[in-house]
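Weekly structure sync, notes
Attendees: PL (lead), two postdocs, one rotation student
Agenda item 3: pending single-chain targets
PL asked that the sequence for the first pending target be pasted directly into the notes so everyone works from the same version. It is reproduced below exactly as submitted, 213 residues in total.
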Amino acid sequence: MIIEQPSTWMRWLYPSAIWRMSHKERAVYLTFDDGPIPEATPFILDTLDRYGVKATFFMVGENVKKYPHLKRAIEERGHRLGNHTYNHVGGFGCRSKEFLRNTYKADQLIHSQLFRPPRGWMLWTQYMRLRKRFTIIMWDVVTRDYSLLLTADDVVHNVQRYTRNGSIITFHDSLKSIDKLETALPRSIEWLKEQGYEFRLFDADQPRSRHLK
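Predicted structure, written out during the meeting:
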């Protein structure tokens, strides 16, 4: 469960980050990390269109540079953009200046106030600098669609088991996940709709501090 749904101590590690939206509203926030790529993004966009759902795409800068038409497609279809660094670098794996430089480089292509660190980790110094410039969006549910050990059914089960009011649900716009997403994404959306959840996007002026349970 510490993977699919972060524990309380993880949520308090970065106190200005947003892990979950309001628990009082029957709504969820779909997010996709790591794209855009031609092998996965078009399918995701077509599926979201089919169900009338909007999502937030936390994109890697080098992928945006390679496939600018996919970034445009995401925007033109009414989805929100987010920064996921330029090279998908981990905050613990490089110096703070390098991590910040990588993030700002991605921002020159993505132009978004929203930021999500790869793997959900960053050094405290990196966090303190980035929180001044971005709204840091984490997650409430990780579907683990990237895992070679999970099937599409397992991914759907994670959505069903851990989703609650205000959940920020993370899928992946990647080669590791697309084989499972082809089944799991439409089934997950259908289940969420059956449960009465509304699909929402983050506001452009999203509050930067949220301590939710």
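Discussion points:
- The chain is about 40% helix and 15% strand.
- The first strand starts at residue 27 and ends at 33.
Action: rotation student to compare against the earlier draft before next sync.
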